[in-house]
Automatic annotation (TrEMBL), chains A, B:
Subunit composition and interactions: Homodimer.
Family: Belongs to the diaminopimelate dehydrogenase family.
Root EC class: oxidoreductase
Pathway note: Amino-acid biosynthesis; L-lysine biosynthesis via DAP pathway; DL-2,6-diaminopimelate from (S)-tetrahydrodipicolinate: step 1/1
Residues bound to substrate: 148, 173, 199, 249, 278
Protein EC: 1.4.1.16
Name the UniProt record assigns to this protein: Meso-diaminopimelate D-dehydrogenase
Gene3D superfamilies per UniProt: Dihydrodipicolinate Reductase, domain 2 (3.30.360.10), NAD(P)-binding Rossmann-like Domain (3.40.50.720)
Domain Meso-diaminopimelate D-dehydrogenase C-terminal as annotated: residue spans: 122-277
Keywords in alphabetical order: Amino-acid biosynthesis, Diaminopimelate biosynthesis, Lysine biosynthesis, NADP, Nucleotide-binding, Oxidoreductase
InterPro entries attached to this UniProt entry: Diaminopimelate_DH_Ddh, Meso-DAP_DH_C, NAD(P)-bd_dom_sf
GO terms, molecular function: diaminopimelate dehydrogenase activity; nucleotide binding
């Protein structure tokens, strides 16, 4: 009677979901779907098969929740509404500006077909969003700030890799400690992008490439780097593999606010994450919400939901009675 | 059409609720109830009346949510189930071991009479409990630890005040920094009470009292101090008023856990509070949950709930659409 999980897309996130399912004894991995040739995709779980993505719908009765591990730019806007017709689904859609339209698309498909779709699950959007909501409801009129890092930004690393003469690259986003301290002290500083984060780049250049030009292209790149203090280190491929193979990340959400009849008392609420593996942590959050998707649907609920709409108890394998006794 | 709030009991917490209602424009304070002579209780909100506690039931149609600000040892076990017959109620019942029976009593009364009762709201139990649940669901098999302080423990201050020859006292609970760091580093240390917190006491003795005896009685007091490293400072009444008039508190909930196929990656989730005023912050959490109690009841829900059972969106005055757009 375990919750049967399917994984759509087997990159870092899909693999993270597979590992997270292993950590949750009330779940089992039922199938992995890929757009690659299934015979070329090796997964970790013994006895579980890899299928082509096109076969997913035919397995709808064998899967309780399908977890969508594609990208937010082109995969999820299509996949999540489409697959919500056949499955309860969870995704990690993270294009903040497009969340409202994604919500509506998934909501329609899920409601029409009696499923639950939970979108934008992970840590930001996800746990950070939740903490912004809770802290904002408790301290209305306060101020909040989110800092990311120290961690690898895949988007920024990719942007560097697209530069001519770059073989590989890893970009770290690093919060500025003095800005963090000012926010923690409740000073509500008005901070520019440059004042909040610095960017550190480790770049493997192709042989004979013009390093000066590459560095200049990086630090002046609009949107990605121009608004930040950016440092560039050229290293060898071996150094990149040895010292920068991981995908750590993390960050902090801080809200400060006042209470009292004349706002005489100050309070600071802080939520922080230090993650060795961004995709594995994101996957762990997603799997907890897959449990919620299953249970909500068992109760007869349908439609699109976000972390804001789900009572925390649905995430835990324990009963309400156990939770009250042990954790309250 | 604001949410009409009543306050039962006007001590530090009741006053904190009054201030929190002022910070939430979708709410209004309707009445304060006290067991003292109402004419002797001065409140802050212009135009709002103070009534005797016995008059509360007769005002049930004028109040959407009654917030119970009594103590957990004798007031709330009686008041919350009794008043849940007539009102949607929220309390901050914090006797952890008795939460299950309190839940059952409130659940019965609230269900029978079509009300919502939310119990054990505040920061511990409350926000800390929530964070234990979320973090535990995300990192199953991990370890968590809660540290309290630096802050004033009312229970420990009261225990000192009961000692013969003590005129007044303030006790601070202080987390041991090295223990905190070990937990943050994911080392899962097995910590005794003594290793996690120290206790610092500021005591005003009566004239001519035997200070040595008082100090000995404090540091050897079972349950309260004997299991901790405790320091005692004798100070003047003026010093106590000048330097220790506030009721600050706070603390931190940390969970560390592993992910990956072979548990190869570590993660640390940390939630921390730094509070100038323990009762005002507790009251601010309670008022957000009062909004939830009102809305849940409007939707037709009844019975006892805790922070675990309530979707975060119910706490915010903003619509789901606004929340998704602005905070997700």
């Amino acid at each position: 009677m375990r919750i049967r999980i399917g994984i759509m897309g087997y990159g870092n996130l899909g693999r993270g979901v597979e590992c997270a399912v292993k950590h949750n004894p009330d779940m089992e991995l039922k199938a992995v779907f890929t757009r690659r040739a299934p015979e070329n995709v090796k997964i970790l779980t013994p006895g579980v098969k890899v299928y082509h993505a096109d076969e997913a719908v035919s397995m709808k009765d064998e899967i309780d929740v399908l977890i969508l591990c594609g990208g937010s730019s082109t995969d999820l806007p299509v996949q999540t509404p489409e697959l919500a017709k056949y499955f309860n689904v969870v995704d990690s859609f993270d294009t903040h500006a497009r969340i409202p339209e994604h919500f509506d698309a998934v909501d329609g498909a899920a409601k029409e077909n009696g499923h639950v779709g939970i979108i934008s699950v992970g840590w930001d959007p996800g746990m950070f969003s939740l903490n912004r909501l809770y802290a904002g409801a408790i301290l209305p009129g306060g101020h909040d700030a989110t800092f990311w890092g120290k961690g690898v930004s895949q988007g920024h690393s990719d942007a560097i890799r697209r530069i001519d003469g770059v073989k590989d690259a890893r970009q770290y986003t690093i919060p500025v400690e003095s800005a963090l301290e000012a926010v923690r002290a409740g000073k509500n500083p008005e901070l520019t992008a440059r004042e909040k984060h610095t960017r550190e780049c480790f770049v493997v250049a192709e042989e004979g490439a013009d390093l000066e030009r590459i560095e200049k292209e990086i630090v002046t790149m609009p949107n990605y780097f121009a608004d930040y203090d950016t440092t560039v280190h050229f290293i060898s491929e071996e150094e990149l593999m040895r010292d920068h193979a991981g995908i750590p990340h993390g960050g902090v959400v801080i809200r400060s606010g006042k209470t009292g009849w004349e706002d005489e008392n100050s309070h600071v609420i802080e939520y922080s994450l230090k993650l060795d593996s961004n995709p594995e942590f994101t996957a762990s959050v997603i799997v907890a919400y897959a449990r919620a998707a299953y249970r909500l649907n068992q109760e007869g609920q349908t439609g699109c939901k976000t972390v804001f709409d789900i009572a925390p108890a649905y995430l835990s394998a324990e009963s309400g009675e156990e939770l009250r006794k042990r954790l309250l």
